[in-house]
Amino acid sequence: MNRLLIASLDLFGPLREGARDDLMACSQEIERFEPGQLMVPAGARSRLRLLARGLAVKQLAPPDGGRQIFGLATPGDLIDVGGLYVGLDHEVRALGVCETRMTTAHELRTMLRAHPNLLAALCRVALTEAQRQRNWMVGLGRRTAPGRAANLFCEVYWRQAALRLAGDGECAFPAVQADIADALGLSVVHVHRVLRALRDDGLATLSKGVLKIGDWEGLARLGGFDPERLRPQRETPDIALRASSG
User: Fold this and answer.
1) Fold assignment, 144-223
2) Residue 60 CA: distances (Å) to CA of 33, 53, 212
3) Is 140 exposed, middle or buried (0-12, 13-18, 19+ CB in 10 A)?
């Protein structure tokens, strides 16, 4: 499974051979979670927790109750990079059945000291997460309720399709209407109306944990979906060439 970790980080790299060797040799502890179970608590430090199976959500829970979901994690994502040098300021919960792999905090610190290239890749992971969260924030502030749902459904499908976990317009999305409401800043009643409208317009349906896209172009247009906001940030070729020759 260390190969999955290397493949995930390579998307933000590329990594150099020394970093690859240490990542391949580092220990990996397996954890499994049921739907709704806490995977990473607020305040946790990073242990390179890799989501190997399932979908998870990143969320904040205000002390007065409720929650705001502000991010989605799909297989191959590192779900605790925000806790790299300080404690995580949010929590991560399983949306469906999930499985993670993680190393020890000591091994991570040792690898970061030995491999600046690995640290740079993790910084780009964090920058990509921030870019995705800004897209989420724009949706909450500027998109209509149907547009918010459309953009969310496009992201859910597109990210899984990139991993070959989706096809023929269908993918797993084990979210209930309360989850969608907390992600879109809407009431459950409003979400119910929006989902019904998307279904009636032939754009998308969500039933029994399966998202079905009926009209991708129409859904993407309604949601103002831009896949460039989701792609991993990588080292530019000119910077990579200077680094390798230095």
Assistant:
1) Arc Repressor Mutant, subunit A (1.10.10)
2) 19, 22, 28
3) middle
How far is the CA of 246 from the CAs of 13, 239, 242, 243, in angstroms? 17, 11, 6, 5
Q: Is 69 left (phi over 0), alpha (psi -120 to 50) or beta?
A: beta
pLDDT of residue 1: 56
Over the Cα atoms of the chain, what is R_g?
A: 19
Q: How big is the CA angle at 144 (ends 141 and 146), to the nearest 5 degrees?
A: 135
Fill in the amino acid letter for 19.
A
Q: What is the pLDDT of residue 245?
A: 47
Q: What burial class does residue 164 get, using C-beta atoms within 10 Å of its C-beta: 0-12 exposed, 13-18 middle, 19+ buried?
A: exposed
Structure tokens at 75: 């297989």
Give the model confidence (pLDDT) of 161-192 as tens digits. Answer: 999 999 999 999 999 999 999 999 999 999 99
Secondary structure E strands in 95-192: 98-102, 170-172
Residue 168 near residue 216 (C-beta atoms within 8 A) = no
DSSP class of 79: S
- Whether the CB-CB separation of 237 and 15 falls below 8 Å is answered with no
Model's pTM, two decimal places?
A: 0.91
Q: Are 23 and 121 contacting, i.e. CB atoms less than 8 angstroms apart?
A: no
CATH class of 2-137: mainly beta
CA angle 59, 155, 11 (to 5 degrees): 90
Q: What is the pLDDT of residue 2?
A: 84
What are 215's two structure tokens? Answer: 């009209």
Quote the tokens at residue 72: 């989605």
Would you kindly state where each structural domain of the chain is located, as residue ranges? Answer: 2-137, 144-223
Report, as ranges of residue numbers, the positions in the chain whose pLDDT lies below 70: 1, 236-246
